[in-house]
């Protein structure tokens, strides 16, 4: 990922001089929440003198921020760690220290194995403890042995983090909720991220105001179960996500809001109504359904059936007729028959998705589904996945083609791939490219969508529609995301 730049804190009168500059490399896998966590780890380490680098040979500290959602996640981490052992040795021969830290969900789930198999790793930390990184670095530098922090501390890490120092660009991510209590049969999140926790609304509003002051125009609220949000409001009451979105929409200069990832069980009436009543809330929702079969949804312990999902879609479309939907699907969950899979295909045909992420079921050690009877043969899973993806691809292409000819407002996020071209985002999260002066980056523009390509649209600029602050490139999106 593009690591946001982090400068050491400037020295002020009466303060200790800044630590000598050191280099920090953070590699991030997985969802946007990990991208957000990586930026916050950089903020926490900046006062120690760590500035970002992309070159592993010059990194005084390397953090692997890992994801456990996808297959063979830990194997990939161990092969990266093997290469880092060599780098650490080479740097040590030149008299340079290298601190290696493994963070994120693989660290949380497999901390003991990491320290046993990779004794050159200095720090193993779970997602709830990265506010303690400076102390862990100090302990690791004193050669106090491996430092392992994978508990779920009672204190709220957000209370101990510095204010985000680095502008994120036109599109910013803001974590409002973490963890999950739902225990779907296939998922490690409840074990690696812990129980559901919501940040107080006041802290979120303050962070959002800072992001807007730094030039962000779109904020995506993040949480493993973001629509289960139930944080304390400034009025002392419990705020839901709908209430929080309405308050955020009042911030001057904040043009767009999104949220991910949601669970169908937590789509309450107020949140659905907000889609029709809050113009800043973009007409796009990622709502994972995973399967169209009630039998499999029960086996997955999803706590909802296909009818509930269909009902939500209908109500959302009534509230916001132009809303586009995205979802997650798992094919080949233990016990899935041809008939169950046909139910999934029927739900997809009936709903129509603008975007979707689909995966073959693969067992995660320690999850209930890993020990279930009726594991589906790989060849069967492959065939079902291909059929599902062909249908989803067709729906995505149809959706994009249906946008051609429309005039829409886009957020200009950066330079395009070709000279003189800019990259933007449509309200439906589609990448849009058009020719325009670079001065428009960071502002809103009205464009006419001219042509649909497999994953993007090209357009013609009609007018710039908002003034542009001096903004930076946005955080690059990563390819995978948390599921809910
Ligand atoms: S899939 Fe989503 S809702 Fe289910 S356990 Fe994982 S994070 Fe929680």
CATH topology name of the largest domain: pyruvate-formate lyase- activating enzyme
Which sequence of strands runs across the widest sheet?
2-1-3-4-5-6
Q: Outline, from the CA principal axes?
A: globular
Bound molecules: iron/sulfur cluster
CATH class type of the largest domain? Alpha Beta
Got a strand count?
A: 21
Describe the structure.
The protein has 484 residues and is of the alpha/beta class. It folds into three domains: 22-149, Methylthiotransferase, N-terminal domain (Rossmann fold, 3-Layer(aba) Sandwich); 157-402, Alpha-Beta Horseshoe (pyruvate-formate lyase- activating enzyme); 404-465, OB fold (Dihydrolipoamide Acetyltransferase, E2P) (Beta Barrel). It is built from twelve helices and 21 strands. The protein has helices at 32-45, 73-93, 104-117, 133-141, 189-192, 201-213, 241-248, 269-277, 294-299, 306-319, 338-351, 378-403; strands spanning 22-28, 50-52, 61-66, 99-103, 123-125, 147-149, 171-175, 177-178, 197-198, 218-222, 230-232, 238-240, 256-260, 284-286, 324-331, 355-360, 407-415, 421-425, 431-435, 444-452, 457-464. Strands 2-1-3-4-5-6 form a six-stranded parallel beta sheet, with helices on both faces. Helix 2 (73-93) packs across helix 3 (104-117) and helix 7 (241-248) packs parallel to helix 8 (269-277). The longest helix has 26 residues, at 378-403. The model is unreliable at 1-19 and 469-482 (pLDDT under 50). The site of iron/sulfur cluster (SF4) has 12 residues, from helix 5. The site of iron/sulfur cluster has 12 residues, from helix 5.
